[in-house]
Amino acid sequence: MLTIAERAYDTLAPGYDELTSANDYEKWLGRKLLPELERRGLRHGRVLDAGCGTGRAFEPLLRRGWEIVGCDVSAGMLAEARRKFPAVPVSMADLRELPVLGSFDLVLCLNDVVNYLIEDGELERAVAGMAANLAPGGFLLFDANTVSLFRANHTPEAVPGGTFEMTVEGAGVEAHIHRQRHFSEEELRMALAAAGLEAIVLLGQEESPLEVELHAVVDQERDRKVVCFGRRPGRRD
Q1: How confident is the model at residue 28 (pLDDT cuts 50, 70, 90)?
Q2: What pLDDT is recorded for position 21?
Q3: CA-based diameter of the chain, in Å?
Q4: What is the C-alpha separation between 80 and 134, in angstroms, rounded?
Q5: Domain interval for residue 47
Q6: How confident is the model at residue 170 (pLDDT cuts 50, 70, 90)?
Q7: What pLDDT shows up at residue 173?
């Protein structure tokens, strides 16, 4: 039986890129997040995009010479990714039961994928699964929505630690329900630590139409996302 997230994104897949066209992955991932990781020791190589969706993150990674593998829980989203990037291998996988798909220098999971992990223990399982795909010295990058972003996305009653439903619709997309959970910074840190990752850093991400700003201290009212970095112990050969 399909999960709520699978049903939601299978429905959303045909119009997803148009609905999220304002998300500039070159500006966000290419010019902000990757350089931030490179300053901390990230080297180019192989990347696993866990929750890759339609492959929105692929282009800035390919432009920089990364070898990409993608996975997602939605067959509809993967079909769009294969159509757009036929040379990038993608497969279906549930983040809560993520298999080891290789040994990667970077595993990323962007655009609130972890917020769909609404049951207790699912965040920890997902982070542990992503960590298991890291090569020694490899980095994990994922983000989570702040309370401020939940309130902006048609859930004005959002409170820290809550689970919320929102209706998503748009041109060519029928109305459907998305259910997400807010995670505190402490919960995110604990999940990273439980997975055995070091160099754990949480940054606040503030967004404007022209710029993405990263802050050393997260502010749940100012920032739209919490950006999480973790590093697997060991040295890359």
Answers
A1: very high
A2: 57
A3: 49
A4: 26
A5: 4-143+155-197
A6: low
A7: 53
Domain-located, residue 232: no
CATH number of the domain residue 68 falls in:
3.40.50.150
Taking a C-beta distance cutoff of 8 angstroms, is the pair 230, 140 a contact?
Answer: yes
pLDDT in the model for residue 1: 42
Among 145, 150, 149, 236, which Cα is nearest to 188's? 145
Local structure of 168: helix, strand or coil: strand
| Count of CB atoms situated within 10 Å of the CB of 165 | 11
Quickly list H helices, the chain. Answer: 4-12, 16-19, 25, 34-39, 58-63, 75-84, 122-131, 147-152, 185-194
Does 206 map to a domain? Answer: no
Domain count across the chain: 1
Q: Is residue 77 situated within a structural domain? A: yes
The answer as to whether 229 is a domain residue is no
pLDDT of residue 178: 72
Write down the pTM of the prediction. Answer: 0.90
